[in-house]
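Section 3.1: Structural characterization of target chains.
Under the original work plan, the team committed to producing a structural model for every single-chain target entering the pipeline before any wet-lab resources were allocated. The record below documents one such target. The sequence was received from the expression subgroup and is listed exactly as submitted; it comprises 328 residues.
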Amino acid sequence: MAEFSAKFRRMSTHGYESGRLDLPFVGISTFGKRPYVSDWAAIRADVAVLGAPFDGGTQWRPGARFGPRAVREASTLFSFGHAGAYDHEDDRTYLGGDVRIVDMGDADIVHTDTMRSHANIETGVRAALAAGALPVVIGGDHSVNIPCINAFDGAGDFHILQIDAHLDFVDERHGVRFGHGNPMRRAAEKPYVSGLTQVGIRNVSSTAREGYEAAREMGSDILSVRQARLIGLRDVAARIPAGAPVYVTLDIDAFCPSIAPGTGTPSHGGFLYYEVLELLQEVARNHPVIGIDLVEVAPDYDPTGSTAILAAQILLNFLGFIFDAKSR
């Protein structure tokens, strides 16, 4: 035993074998294996990741409450306890050690109580903003976007990019105003939301014709997947007002369910991975990104785990693009 301990000490003092190997399946699953900060008044970071495990706004299959946990676990696949990821296509190293990312844990969810749960999510986003960090919220159903946007009431005017299969522009249905079919309508009502670009909208949707008409009247630019492909993803990004700060809300059902089946309301004909990635990279190059939420990952509908892996991969790459653009 003593001989083994001495050998381990010798190994641990040389090069890359110093410290822990910290493989993806080892340890606590924080986002990207980054530090956990339980005291929201003590955040010192460039990015603060908040889980919003609320799916009480869901109209069909529940399960997105387990999305934050699944995406965090999936994110460890790309994180061996060290920073930096070299991309040979771009010849860039993204998310180097200078980008400080912390995990805030989850907002407290009060079962059956939408307003209290949303209020707790809003408190978390406000804490991230107060710390000067970019808030990244992992849902949860798309209703969690409502408290996220509420938290930006002092941030000045900004544009919203929604990547989604569904318009989510219902005003009120049977008294429901804060479910996952309402968030873009609630956002458009905010005086500080200057407009919306809604991309990927398709097929039998969550919003009737009058909802589309109201969305356009309130400043929305709506594109289906086929329209976006015809125009080209760079030109889609160019439709966002030049230089406008952008908040990005990404529903995982924007992707084709052939690659993202783990969601409550899958819709065939969706985007493929590189289409969304290229759109986000173009947005990051030309706009300050002020906030992100990624919603509707429901892991129980995907036993392969690939939907959560897709979500984690998109978030990590997008963060890399954002901070690379800031450094240029």
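The CA atoms of residues 197 and 221 lie 5 Å apart.
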